[in-house]
Amino acid sequence: MAVPKWLSWILFLVFEVLAIGACAFHLYALFVPCVFNVCYGSGLFAKCRCVKVFTHDIPFTSGEIKDKTVLFIVLQSLFVGSAILAIVATVLAFLGFVMDKIKNWSVFVIWLAASASLSLSILYTIQYRMTKDHGIFIFKKFSFTDYFIDLNQFELPKLLTLSWTTFPVFLLLGVVVMTKKR
Q1: Over pLDDT 70: what percentage of the chain?
Q2: Which end is more exposed in the chain, N or C (fewer Cβ atoms within 10 Å of the end residue's Cβ)?
């Protein structure tokens, strides 16, 4: 069963806009100055995070942020999701053009897995570099809600190893399956 070209292009355009928006926010975050630093622990075990506020006012003080025990991963999910969807949409658009060559859904699923793994690898690599300079963002989504996003909440080195390992595996598997189907 082939993917219609019109559906592929619609998904590609919509999710590509989301991905570009997520990348733009990352670039914008690089130029936002630190408001203050929040440090956890003391002495040699202290870990500090640069706090950047994406609001017109500063809703919290460093002491109040330090008292927060749960850091929400809202924007993190947005970045990961948009990147995955953009890559998946690209694959769908590609499959729309080669529908006469790929007629098996097993190949389709494998390529989707490979594209998702690649998008995660690229995204985690970018964020791993970013978190060396700043970690906590405050993003006011609504007037009464503030989300705390700790980019170091995920164990990025382990995720990087996992994502960059699974991508070539899926890619190789896709090539093998496509070769056997012909």
Answers
A1: 0
A2: C
